[in-house]
Amino acid sequence: MDTSASDTLIRTNLDFLRRHAPFDRMETEALRFLGERLATAFYPAEAEILIPEDGPPRFFYIVYRGKVQARQVGSVSVTEYSTLTLGPGEGFPIGAISAGRPSTNGYIAVEDSYCFQLPAADFLKLQELSPTFQLFCTRYIASLLNQSREQLQVQFSQRAAEQQTMTTSLSNLVKKAPVFVGPELATRSALERMVEAGVGCLAVAGEDEKPVGVLTQSDILKRIVLPGFDLTRPIAEVMTTPPHTLNASASAYDAALEMATHGVRHILVVDTDDKLKGVISERDLFALQRIGLRQIRSGIESAADVQALQRASRDIRQLALNLLAQGIGAEQLTQFISALNDALTRRIIELNLNRHDLYGVEYAWLAFGSEGRHEQTLSTDQDNGILYILPEWADKEPLKLRLLEFAKDVNNDLAACGFPLCEGNIMASNPELCLTFDEWREKFGTWIREPHPEALLNATIFFDYRVLYGDEKLAHKLRHWLLSMTGGNPAFLKAMATNALDVSPPLGKIRDFVTDDDARHPGTIDLKKFGARLFVDAARVLSLRTGVDATSTVQRLRQGGSRIGMPAEELAAMADGFHFIQLLRLRHQHLDTDHGSSGDNRVKPDDLNELDRRILKEAFRQARKIQLRLKLDYQI
Amino acid sequence: MNWLSRLLPGSNPALDPEQRAALDAIIALPPPDLARSHYETRYVVINAETGPMDGGGQRLLAVGAVAINQGLLHPADAYRAQLGSAPVDAMIGLVRFIARSPVVVFNAPFNQGTLERALEQNLGSAPDLDWIDLMVLMPSLFPERTTGQARMDAWLGAFGIDRLDHRDALLEALCVAQLLQVALARANAQGLASPRDLLDTQSSRKWLRGS
């Protein structure tokens, strides 16, 4: 190669790059590295530059001259834009090439265009060489996260809106095709049909689908059972006629008014041709009423009994659904859930204190595990304990007994309010977990001195404690002591780190994800065990090492990470990764289980949209990154 | 007779052994397969920089060359030389850079003429190369744009190609190379998929024009 000629051409490349972000801020050496490796290709208008079918992209492209359009491919929309035009200086496909997976978009030249192309391996090398470029790419991927959130918002906002306003039209409220029979049908068959469809209201319509009558459950008793009506006779003889109908364009408010005026519980919805479109019940309208944060909170605080708190608990779930639907992030959402659950638990404790006299006893009600970290999802069972001080005047046994009785009632009330009793008996009513300050210290101390597997497992649950009710100072003193014990104990920290590295992120070498080989859940990933836990465990080690008081994973990462000199951007990317996994868990538990099946943490990557898959992969990469840091720090 | 054999030992005593060896290495290269597609072909785009000669006419002062290899222009694949005091080395360097690839110029009568004269003068003979002239080819590829031959400026303007410095042979070659990329994309769309097709189109065009 002729160096003077190459230099001239490289300089023309550099002159161009220096005029565009992020290359204008890029380190000299990295820029030179890039300039030397850019080949120029020409694409006439309408030419495909990159399509998903090409597989993982071989090149990173920078538009040199002309216009390139990113177009969504396939029927499922994965970003909020359907097309996006890229001009000179803009690069693509950052997400796909970083993740080593096919692009979601097709990239097409909309006019005659020249593009620089950089081999994929050099793109990755450039990220290593240039912190500026790496930050740029990280931010870009973070913006994909926002897009995913916004997309969620779009996806569910309609649903949320329907749930929140009485001005919604009935056509939006009708969910199911109507169940109806012809007027000549024998009453027995009609009733069978009702049972079969599980409806409380049966519409009767002619062959033209125009409703002629209606029969509700309450009619059955009065008109059929008690009078001994002959079930072989046609339904038309016992139905209410004419039925109450409203046009599908009428509002929920109109329906409520109609029901109130005529004292009926069902309205038949018809289209402009008077054909039956569906049935709206009183209950459908109740569901529209909006539940607000403040309302729930004051409901909890003024609750007089467990029944009132049970309602509040249901409201919390409904609110979480609404917030999720409004596209709120995982961090804020878990904070809301956590704050309301805290309030609920406190109220339960207060109500029980009316029956259990603990006056003058210094104690704290502790939450452990995810609750201790403010990271509860919706299918978390209770993990709690009591920390108390034995006064000089008291005998230990009777006091402890009183505390245990009290704890048992609180545990049961919590269970009644939707926090299942802990299978592992990690509950305050367990005598092992209702301990004095010295006993807790002894317990923690033993685990730290002899970090056998069970001790380490305990540490991962109990060291994340937090006070929900009672004496905060007591708990703080314990925390202070704990951190002084762990901070200067490399052997224990190494054991915790080894424990944290027990599970690796489910990233495949060939496939994107390694899914569970459990035959009962094929193709799924347990996002708790193989996702959130990786961050949580690593962050805990970090906090114990650097003496961070906070129990939340993100706070531990941010504070602990900066104490050992990890760059803020890197930590922010890790926090984003963790939040995304939490968001997926919440979404899965909440939205996918809206119809009553119990929530779990198993997500099928194949069911996720392309963008979410991509971000999930990036989140796992972040988990790998923090694990790598642990490995290096503790020589594991 | 193959042009390379004219460069065989004995044919030009002015070359020293090192220069001789350099030319021998080129003789050993297989000839390009002109029937392969553009995207399997390496084209070499050359631009000649000239100055007035004593007694009239133009003589070659410098040469710039850029390759389009498999459709791509890569900064590592470029050549530039001033003839100056070592014109033989400059010409050998050029021949080595061309490496028997089809050569592309804009305005062959000028560029090809000047270059062949310089090669003959310095190496004893001008190599037989496949010359493609974009000035001839562009109007047949883009009949909608012009009815006859147009100046290079017009073509560069039509495709938004910046002319960075028309006094620099290499940067001029860069412009022509970008023009060639446009030409290759269009040729492909018209079913002219190989260098052979371009050469055939060019000769029929020349014939039609009576040149």
Summarize the structure.
Helix content of chain A is 50%, strand content 14%.
Question: In terms of topology, how is this protein built?
Answer:
The complex is a heterodimer of chains A (636) and B (211).
Chain A: H1 3-17, H2 28-37, E1 39-43, E2 48-50, E3 59-65, E4 68-72, E5 83-86, E6 91-92, H3 94-99, E7 105-109, E8 113-119, H4 120-129, H5 131-164, H6 170-173, E9 180-181, H7 187-197, E10 201-205, E11 211-216, H8 217-225, E12 245-247, H9 252-262, E13 266-270, E14 276-281, H10 282-286, H11 293-301, H12 306-325, H13 330-353, E15 363-367, H14 369-372, E16 384-388, H15 396-416, E17 434-436, H16 437-449, H17 453-462, E18 466-470, H18 472-487, H19 490-500, E19 525-526, H20 528-546, H21 553-563, H22 568-590, E20 602-603, H23 610-634
Parallel strand pairs in A: 9-10, 12-13, 16-17
Antiparallel strand pairs in A: 1-8, 2-7, 3-6, 3-8, 4-5, 4-7, 10-11, 13-14, 15-16, 15-18, 19-20
Helix pairs in contact in A: 1-2, 4-5, 5-12, 5-22, 5-23, 11-12, 11-13, 12-13, 13-15, 16-17, 16-18, 18-20, 19-20, 19-23, 20-21, 20-22, 20-23, 21-22, 22-23
Chain B: H1 17-27, E1 42-52, E2 58-69, E3 72-82, H2 87-98, E4 103-105, H3 108-123, E5 131-133, H4 134-141, H5 152-158, H6 169-189, H7 195-209
Parallel strand pairs in B: 1-4, 4-5
Antiparallel strand pairs in B: 1-2, 2-3
Helix pairs in contact in B: 1-2, 2-3, 4-6
